[in-house]
Amino acid sequence: MSSSNKFTSSSQQNTIWGAAFLMATSAVGPGFLTQTTVFTQQLAANFGFVILLSILLDLGAQLNIWRIIAITEKRAQDIANDLLFGLGYFLSFLIVIGGFAFNIGNVAGAGLGIEVMSGLHVKTGAILSASLAILIFLLPQAGYLMDSIAKWLGLLMLVMIAYVVLSAHPPLGEAITKTLLPQQFDPIATITLVGGTVGGYITFAGGHRLLEAGIKGKNALPQVNRSATTGILVTSIIRYFLFLATLGVVATGLVLSKENPPASVFQLAAGPLGYRLFGVLMWSAAITSVIGSAYTSVSFLRTFHPILEKNHRYLTVIFISISTLLFVWIGKPVQVLVFVGTLNGFILPIALAVMLVAVRQKRLVGNYRHPFWLQAAGWLVVFIMTAMAIRSVMA
């Protein structure tokens, strides 16, 4: 193999892993950490079932959307506009609004992480973190840096949470039993969890990244499947580990802080070192989510006009800057982090339904036949998420 082909292969592998971790770290943001901790407090070991259900719903959404983007070789908004003119603009509006709300929470989480690590004020940490994200997008190798940062910080998060799980000594038998046979179920927790994992922009993060890197078409489907399932697997492991760590703490009767629930889990489980580790974890989760949210949200706008395409980096800078200013103005990071997951849970069934209708149009996909089991799984996710969204509103 020539050195050029080796470089191409290595670069593609980095992108495949990078897309998986971009999706995973976009999902494993500060909202993810806060939601998981808050709902474990409320549901205890029963929350394991909500996680299991969310994993199945996540797979049904991700595999469908990533494959449809790859096979059409178009971004989601262009697929939607080709299906029905104007639909792409509507979908983009939903995604960008949801991504924007999410990014306020991401910036808030970065500020919380900096505060724990250094003692700096939350808002100062948020501004510094946002400045770093802006710098990354302004550099020539932004795509490569984004893939690498997502991958390595994602692995670091896995290691840190595993350490805290071992320190927390959770009741594993009870956790596994109630994951499979729960005694309590909460639809609002489920829609928030799924919304925070694959809702809104997160569903499209990896698919758009692979498309931009040229990994597309029927021949690329095995790589697309591998990248999507890897992203879900990483997200699920981190979620379940955090659930176990929180369960280990609350099972002993200890009370978590209302101001920063996940931080108190780490502190109570592993002492002062755990508290500092939480700062690193929260910041890592937040900065990767700021990057993923900004990249994916702007990817829904850049194809609408050549000027937007040409200046997409500056559009990304504006996106991050405004969300940071809004957080500095609004404050209340914990409330923001829980709310945005629920918001994105409402967007998922709309976006997924559009993609599932599009994949049945021969003028969009040619001779490609989307697997029946994937279509069925996708529509099941749409119906379940729609029903839970309606129920949560009426509750």
Description:
Helix 3 packs antiparallel against helix 11, helix 4 (76-83) runs antiparallel to helix 5 (87-118) and helix 7 (142-168) packs antiparallel against helix 12. The protein contains 17 helices and no strands. It is mostly helical and 395 residues long. It is globular. The chain has helices at 3-27, 30-43, 47-72, 76-83, 87-118, 122-138, 142-168, 172-180, 187-198, 202-212, 221-250, 261-299, 306-310, 312-330, 333-358, 362-365, 372-394.
Protein topology:
Blueprint: H1 3-27, H2 30-43, H3 47-72, H4 76-83, H5 87-118, H6 122-138, H7 142-168, H8 172-180, H9 187-198, H10 202-212, H11 221-250, H12 261-299, H13 306-310, H14 312-330, H15 333-358, H16 362-365, H17 372-394
Q: Which structural class do you get from the secondary structure elements? A: mainly alpha
Q: N- to C-terminal separation?
A: 61 Å
Query: What is Rg?
Result: 20 Å
| N-to-C order of helices and strands | HHHHHHHHHHHHHHHHH
Which word captures the global form?
A: globular
Helical percent range? over 70%
Please state the average pLDDT score: 85
Low-pLDDT segments: 1-8
Count the DSSP helices: 17
> How many strands?
0
Give the strand content. under 5%
Largest sheet: none
